[in-house]
Amino acid sequence: MTTERVATVVGDLVNRINDAIAKHEVTYDEYRAAVNYLIRVGEAGEWPLFTDVFFEHTVEQLNQGEGGTIMGPYYVPDAPWLERPYVLPMREDEKGDPLILSGTVRSTSGDPIPGAVLDMWQADADTNYSNIQQEPPPFNLRGKMTTDENGEFEVRTIVPPYYHLPRGGPMEELLKAAGWHDFRPGHLHFIVSADGYTPLTTQLYFEGDRYLDSDVASAVKPELILTLREHDSPEEMDARGMTKPFFTTSHEFRLKPAG
Ligand code: DHB
Ligand code: FE
């Protein structure tokens, strides 16, 4: 970043914070509480959470636009490469309704992209991310896969129920103090990439989720909301080798040519 860019953006930010302080006649007690709060956000390691909840959506809109959304704080590189038929790594008794997600990766002009990489991650049914929270084993519900010669993929996982941010730290404290809830709709995360295309960071959501219209992270877009189809007949379960009712849905990811 150039000196001019830093001075312009940081200068504007500082001016706007000073304007808000003046407008609301912030007291010394409030100022000291705010400083102490910011220190505790750092001590708790919650800066990635804090900044992604409040600000990533704006950066994302400017830089990705349609079909994309925020990455959030819980991406971990080096998730395992999966083998077909794709199943996200999960515990034997993983909680949640089974979900089969299928789809296609295409260029923005509509051509299917064979060999595109989907790097996928999600929380478990108790809203815990592996490699972040203690509970799930490493790389639980995280994996990488590729599209076939038709640009298509299919992966089995669980339907992610609606989600709350990690609790017990400064983030929860602030949301409670402001009377705001800490929920996001249930979601699946993806980074989709292919040679010659700009990688797409996005999430998929599900129709009917109670938090679609009030995501604490402001990261829902209409084109990312999928409809789940339930399959509960013995024939359907047999055909898929499933031992309990399951859901299916599909999505088309669109990648922009690089450059
Ligand atoms: C945020 C985003 C997520 O996807 C998530 O699971 C938790 C937090 C965020 O924007 O901070
Ligand atoms: Fe998430």
TrEMBL record:
Boundaries of every Catechol dioxygenase N-terminal domain copy: 4-64
Residues covered by the Intradiol ring-cleavage dioxygenases domain: 70-234
A Pfam family matched in the record: Dioxygenase_C
Organism: Haloechinothrix salitolerans
Alphabetical UniProt keywords: Dioxygenase, Iron, Metal-binding, Oxidoreductase
Record PANTHER family: DIOXYGENASE, PUTATIVE (AFU_ORTHOLOGUE AFUA_2G02910)-RELATED, INTRADIOL RING-CLEAVAGE DIOXYGENASES DOMAIN-CONTAINING PROTEIN-RELATED
GO molecular function list: dioxygenase activity
The protein, known as: Dioxygenase
Superkingdom of origin organism: Bacteria
Family statement drawn from the similarity comment of this UniProt entry: Belongs to the intradiol ring-cleavage dioxygenase family.
The keyword Iron belongs to this UniProt entry's keyword annotation: yes
Cofactor(s) the protein needs: Fe(3+)
